[in-house]
Structures are given as C-alpha cells and as structure tokens.
Design goal:
It is a single chain. It contains 5 helices and no strands. By secondary structure, it is an all-alpha fold.
Length: 74
Amino acid sequence: GTSVCLSCLLTELAEHKGNVETLIGFGATRWEATRDVLKRSTVMGLTPSLNQMAISGVVAIPGMMTGQILGGTP
C-alpha cells in the first residue's frame, strides 16, 4: 500500500507539475497546491488494503463468546 501510494504520488506530481507551480504562484500553500494529487495518491494507496478487507471479510468476532454466538446459544 505504501509503495503504491508513493509511486502514484511521484507520478502524479511529475504529470501535474505545471498545475502545482501555477497554484503556488497564485499564493496557494504547498498543501493547497498538492491537495488533489495527495487525494488521488491516497486513494490509490488504500485501494489494495480495502480490496483485501472486502475479500477476507471486514467483520471479525473476537473473544470467547464467538462459538456461542455463531452456534446460536442464548
């Protein structure tokens, strides 16, 4: 996830360098200028983790009561 995010971030910054420089030239902070790039990179970085959770199941029931809950014991 982290390597995907970083790779996407560097690619996006290289592709949108002109946009970022223009925004900084108009007075935006570095965070404001790179907000869209950071957002896209974060989504790309989190996608593999979210897909893994969707496949394995997000809900896990820990603890000693698991068998009773799943078995239907009141």
